[in-house]
Amino acid sequence: MKTTVSQRECREELVGLFEAMYAELSAWRALHPDASLDEIAAQVTPRRRRVMGAVIAQLACHEGNGVTVDGKLCPRCGERMKYKGEATCSKEHLEGEITLQRAYYVCPVCGETFFPPR
Ligand SMILES: [Zn+2]
User: Fold this and answer.
1) Domain-located, residue 1
2) From ligand 1's centre to the CA of 73, what distance in Å?
3) What is the pLDDT of residues 80-113, one digit of tens each?
4) Total domains in the fold of the chain
């Protein structure tokens, strides 16, 4: 049940994102020849965060989408957790905005949730 995307596909997607970011920034720069370093950096930062968020999401999913045949044991009470399908998780991180599509587990006894990797 484990699904993985090849590292080559991951790399191609990231290179595409970087190229698109660079093209956008180059186009912006052409329209703003008198921009200061701070103004240029203000254009770069949000785009860099989107690209780095995609890098983190890809690295998090290198080992699959978190679905295991054996299931997961609840880290709080030890009960076997129930697989609830895939869910989308968005997380704000210092390095970027991260969106993951991952397996989601819930403990039927204590309600603990697990969305690997933590
Ligand atoms: Zn539990």
Assistant:
1) no
2) 8
3) 998 888 888 888 888 888 888 888 889 999 999 8
4) 1
Q: Which domain holds residue 40?
A: 7-114
Residue 57 lies in a domain: yes
Does 14 reside within a domain? yes
The whole-number pLDDT of residue 42 equals: 97
> What is the distance in A from the centroid of ligand 1 to the CA of 24?
48
Q: What are phi and psi of 113, to 5 degrees?
A: -115, 155
Query: Does residue 60 form part of some domain?
Result: yes
| CA neighbor of 113 nearest in space, from 67, 86, 82 | 82
**C-alpha distances out from residue 35 to 30, 39, 43, 74, Å:** 10, 6, 10, 54
Report whether 75 contacts 112 (CB < 8 A). yes
Judge residue 99's burial from the number of C-beta atoms within 10 Å of its C-beta, 0-12 exposed, 13-18 middle, 19 or more buried: middle
State mean pLDDT over 13-39: 97
Cα 26 to averaged position of ligand 1 atoms, centre (Å)? 52
Q: Please count the other Cβ atoms lying within 10 Å of the Cβ belonging to residue 21.
A: 16
